[in-house]
Design brief:
By secondary structure, the chain is of the alpha/beta class. The protein is built from 8 helices and 11 strands.
Length: 238
């Protein structure tokens, strides 16, 4: 089983897993938000345990829990071969995103904008940890997740199936908005410090930049991903 921490992550885990949730632990006391979460869990047929804050602190091991913890089934990871490149496919690939907060925030944006799947390499990436789950605000429970041995070969595979792989870089050759994003798209987000690796960059069909007019040269990975995902949806809504 997997540990989920935080009010919203626990609520989304209950929505996703229902009775398959093993247990919900709520901080005892007069906390209306936590009491509402406990009622919601019981409505799903899930056992709720009230415990002192120190017990939740012990289980959370330093991760902020907001008085709510759940034990839920492990996340299912799909294989690269299970991903279908249909006309509306929208994939997000993460190149060595090592910060759990950024990783979780990208997952949240990807789910919010209807991404088909999120891909990342099994090495040099943030783990699927309670910190990542919490940063996604529970969105990870609804995401299609694909961990691959090597990102460049995964990009090449999806490109051969018809997706256009677009790497985001502040020094990109063209604004993202100038690219036709109406077909199958694979957005590739580089790491917080180094950006896209050379091997990943070579596997991309285009390297695009986000138009910026302020004094800052770049955005963090999660902000860049959200803006790029919005641009895809903006074009497709026209």
């Amino acid at each position: 089983m997997r540990l989920v921490l935080g009010v919203q992550p626990v609520r989304e885990a209950l929505r996703a897993h229902g009775r398959r949730t093993e247990q919900v632990i709520i901080e005892e006391g007069d906390h209306p938000q936590l009491q509402a979460l406990a009622r919601f869990a019981r409505d799903q047929g899930v056992a709720v345990t009230l415990a002192p804050r120190l017990e939740l602190d012990r289980r959370a091991r330093g991760v902020r829990h907001q008085g709510a913890i759940a034990l839920v089934p492990e996340l299912r990871l799909v294989t690269l071969g299970e991903l279908a490149v249909d006309p509306g496919a929208l994939f997000v690939a993460l190149d060595e995103i090592s910060d759990p907060q950024n990783f979780g925030a990208v997952i949240r944006s990807a789910v919010a904008f209807g991404a088909s799947a999120i891909l990342w390499a099994e090495h040099a990436s943030a783990p699927l940890s309670p910190s990542t789950f919490r940063a996604s605000a529970g969105a990870v429970e609804h995401a299609t997740l694909c961990r691959v041995p090597a990102l460049p070969s995964a990009l090449q595979h999806l490109s051969e199936l018809g997706a256009i792989a677009i790497g985001l870089d502040a020094q990109g050759e063209v604004d993202l908005a100038a690219i036709d994003l109406s077909g199958p798209v694979l957005l590739v987000i580089g790491s917080e410090g180094k950006g896209l690796k050379k091997s990943v960059r070579r596997a991309c069909s285009r390297i695009a930049r986000l138009p910026m007019s302020g004094p800052l040269a770049s955005l963090n990975a999660s902000a860049a991903a959200a803006i790029a995902l919005y641009e895809v949806r903006r074009q497709r809504a026209r």
